[in-house]
Amino acid sequence: MNQTIEKIIQFRDERDWKQFHNPKDLAISLMLEAAELLENFQWKTSDEAIAKNMTNIEDELADVMIYAVLLADNLGIPIEQMILNKIEKNEAKYPVDRFKGSSRKYNEAE
Amino acid sequence: MNQTIEKIIQFRDERDWKQFHNPKDLAISLMLEAAELLENFQWKTSDEAIAKNMTNIEDELADVMIYAVLLADNLGIPIEQMILNKIEKNEAKYPVDRFKGSSRKYNEAE
Amino acid sequence: MNQTIEKIIQFRDERDWKQFHNPKDLAISLMLEAAELLENFQWKTSDEAIAKNMTNIEDELADVMIYAVLLADNLGIPIEQMILNKIEKNEAKYPVDRFKGSSRKYNEAE
Amino acid sequence: MNQTIEKIIQFRDERDWKQFHNPKDLAISLMLEAAELLENFQWKTSDEAIAKNMTNIEDELADVMIYAVLLADNLGIPIEQMILNKIEKNEAKYPVDRFKGSSRKYNEAE
Lengths: 110, 110, 110, 110
Description:
homotetramer, mainly alpha, Helix Hairpins, 5 helices, DCTPP (chains A, B, C, D)
């Protein structure tokens, strides 16, 4: 996976695109890719979307991850540490004994 | 990084949440996290957002990646291969010699 | 309805907020409100969302319309004419005889 | 404006599309149109976006409003009353004397 992340950075640098990559527009781009991903599910059940749009779903999900990596790189955030920190916070918000098998949000009544 | 991905899956499975994770709602959730990330930049320049909201930016970017991993897992997509495939497509869309140092889209005139 | 639109502009002007309202951040804000609206449907069927979140759905849908009006005003676009123009384009894209009772997109095969 | 709203409903009914219009997919569609609107501002300042993409901005903003009207109709919400209710709530959240000339959010310190 770390090699894949390096590939993403290399793709950007070969095109000299870092100069355009301000964090605000990267955050917009990430959002737009997430919307293109979601578009595959519009007016469809999950099963219909998978049957009809699987290749596009993979492509757009990849684009989401690519932009997420580019934004992390741009901000100088170490990705693994960032995710581990957030998992820790999520564990505090959603303790196993209170949320096992429940889909409610942490601030919704039991 | 592969261990981090396993941690994400483990977090889900300890709470028995896979039963709620249909791809359509995961794609919605990914979009919502991308919006929460972007909210940190609303009415702000990139520099102002970083100065004021850096911790929250890290948290929301982590949530984007976590949902991206969960959706890939749910759909049975191998993440690295998916990203490498997309980089290949992007290389065909944006050849270095035509797009180096240019911010235009592949379908915009030179 | 025209009085309601004036009320929206008046709300902004009483707070002297036009100075902050650049079109890019208004477009971001509109997107964020649409995400907050959609959040009411996350992990839920339409019926569950309506049963549980109707007041919030109304509030967020109102915010979407409010930002849409503010963006149109900011760009000097006459709202009615803008909508009528787009309906005309949509009529050309989706002629009744070919799309009556069909949910496919204009660029999808019949 | 009320005639314009009727035109939107008429466009839908001529194509017999109400049968597909469940609130969840309408909320998704509204979000997707807001993303397409925002795409016009990606990697651009507001001025650059306006100079280059004004027609598309108008079209996408119209689509946002059209879907907002369709969702309100689908849910049986009277649009004007909905907006007036929300303005009232916003007035309570943002009293003129505390927020005139300030861009901070209601929950941000003065």
